[in-house]
Design goal:
Strand order of the largest sheet: 5-4-6-7-3-10-11-12-13
CATH superfamily of the largest domain: P-loop containing nucleotide triphosphate hydrolases
CATH architecture of the largest domain: 3-Layer(aba) Sandwich
Helix content: 25-40%
Number of strands: 13
Order of helices and strands: HHHHHEHEEHEHHEHHEHHEEEHEEEE
Number of domains: 2
Length: 368
Amino acid sequence: MASKKLRRTGVSLELCDRLKRHQIETCQDLLSLTPLDVMRLAGLSYQQVLILLKSASQACVPAMTTALEMWKQRADLCFSTSLPGLDRLLQGGLSRGTLTEVAGPSGCGKSQMCMMLSVLATLPKNMGGLDSGVIYIDTESAFSAERLVEIAQSRFPDYFSKERVLEMAGRVHVFRELTCQDVLDRLKRLDENIISSKAGLVILDSVASVVRKEYDTTLPGNLNHRSNLLGQEAATLKYLAQAFHIPVVLTNQITTHVGDRGGRGAVPFTGVPGEEDSGYVTAALGNTWSHSVNTRLIVQYVDARQRQIVIAKSPVAPFAVLNYSVQKEGIRLEGNNDNQEVAHQGTDPGLQPIRIRTSFSDNLMKGT
């Protein structure tokens, strides 16, 4: 909440412009200064400064609500994924005002899921959509406008005429940020983008990509720097999700744990049960990061065609597994998902083993 822009707290535009000349744009920027500093920079009296600081401080405090109010608003708390089995387990879909992470190996459908959700968000509300724009932050150059259009026309052939396809594509705002600082800077000013584009969904695909490229955690100090960066990103994204009451979707990569079987229920690194191996894979970025997301969905391989969605962490859903495949229309649940396989978790969501395949040819690994 401290990253809230001053102009969204009722501060006059004239005063905001005056403070902006001194790189003071957020509540945090202002509250980190002494009253004397603010007097000098803003040209205000001491009493005016005290009022300004009090107003900024109150704007940072999350609004109080009651469980009863939340229960009455429950119909407006979720965004449907259009996957009935998953929506049913999540009690309506992706929760608004929270962070949902989709973690898994390359080629398993993470970006496909994100593009499908982007299409869904633009749909009218009577079709289960948000009738809104989408902010899509692409750090891996994985976004494809052609694939977005294909998903839209294949999933809703009767709705997406040529005119509606063009309108849909125009509501998905893609930002390609390729460094950690670029991503952080984008997030810090994202509230303006959300307002201008009337976005009802924010996607960061992926949170791990640039972080793992820039921070070698075997070097002294890098782990702390990385943790600080991820903490800032998580805090900013949570503020945006809560302030605008929208779902925020992140994708994450996998990492290998060597020399540890991962406890009961762990899957070998090869993904082939019964094969001996010296390690196992989990979602990247560590256990601390896993506590920053509200819901964690793991996507993993079953075979060359079929995959699984694992609900590894959720405040409302049980630990469960659903089979799916990636089709022209995006993600499609497969099999009898009215009776989902409920699995034994056996470990912390941050250490949940992920099944991968190392023997697939490259042409089966398309569509991360």
